[in-house]
Amino acid sequence: MTLYSEDMTDEAARDARQDRPDTDDLDFWSFVDLANHRLATEYGFRHQLATEVLLTLNRASNIVTYDLEAAVHRPHGLSWSAFRLLFVTWLAGPLEPKRAAVLSGMSRAAVSNLVKTLVADGLLDRSPDARDGRSVRLSLTDQGHARMVEVFRVHNEREHEWASVLTDTEQRILVMLLDKLITNRDQFDVRGRN
């Protein structure tokens, strides 16, 4: 694999390496600028704005998710995945594990593994489906319900802290734009759980 475009001369490639900033001085935004510049000039990639949008989207998602898990969920004895499964079961349950996977954005295997732990912890109940004996339904136990009310109170306050840097209008625009991004994915072959 070559590090530089085959169209570049050895001298141009050497100059490109020398012009790079010291990586110790990079922050996220200067990295995005560097990445976009190199992708365009050294490799000829044309869609720098798309790269910036998705790098920023992933970065924001990772930062917020990590913060919520570290500040809210872990102190309450939950992982981010456990919270997501309990959250959809709390508000949409009882429901089948397959539906819980779709709503939580997890794989069925991940839900199956989490269910075992959450049942053992006394937060989730797994019972046979009254309509279909081959299937099961997930629901919160009384302890699980009380835990979700307690955890979500803290979670919702943390959500508010994050979102309050945007005006109500900006928040609605962001939701609208993210919805547009997600709902228009059928225009190309998207791979994903849901």
Description:
With 194 residues, the chain is mainly α. It has 2 domains: 10-46, no CATH class; 66-184, Arc Repressor Mutant, subunit A. It contains 8 helices and 2 strands; from the N terminus they run ααααααββαα. The chain has helices spanning 10-19, 28-41, 48-73, 80-92, 97-104, 108-120, 142-163, 168-183; strands at residues 124-128, 136-140. The protein has a two-stranded antiparallel ribbon. A hairpin with a 7-residue loop joins β1 and β2. α2 (28-41) runs antiparallel to α3, α4 (80-92) crosses α5 and α5 (97-104) packs across α6 (108-120). The longest helix has 26 residues, at 48-73.
Defining key terms:
194 residues; mainly alpha; Arc Repressor Mutant, subunit A; 2 domains; two-stranded antiparallel ribbon; 5% strand; elongated; disordered N terminus
Please report which band the strand proportion falls in: under 5%, 5-15%, 15-25%, 25-35%, 35-45% or over 45%.
5-15%
How are the strands ordered across the major sheet? 1-2
The parts where pLDDT drops under 50 for at least 5 residues are 1-5
Number of helices: 8
Count all strands and give the number. Answer: 2
Q: How many structural domains in the coordinates? A: 2
For this entry, what is the oligomeric state of its chains? single chain
Please tell me the CATH architecture of the largest domain by its name.
Orthogonal Bundle
> What is the rounded Rg?
23 Å
Q: So what's the overall shape? A: elongated
Strand/helix succession: HHHHHHEEHH
CATH class of the largest domain: Mainly Alpha
Instruction: State the CATH topology of the largest domain.
Output: Arc Repressor Mutant, subunit A
State the helical fraction: 55-70%
Q: Name the structural class.
A: mainly alpha
Give the CATH H-level superfamily of the largest domain. Winged helix-like DNA-binding domain superfamily/Winged helix DNA-binding domain
N-to-C span:
34 Å
State mean pLDDT (0 to 100 scale): 89
Q: Mind summarizing the main beta sheet?
A: 2 strands, antiparallel
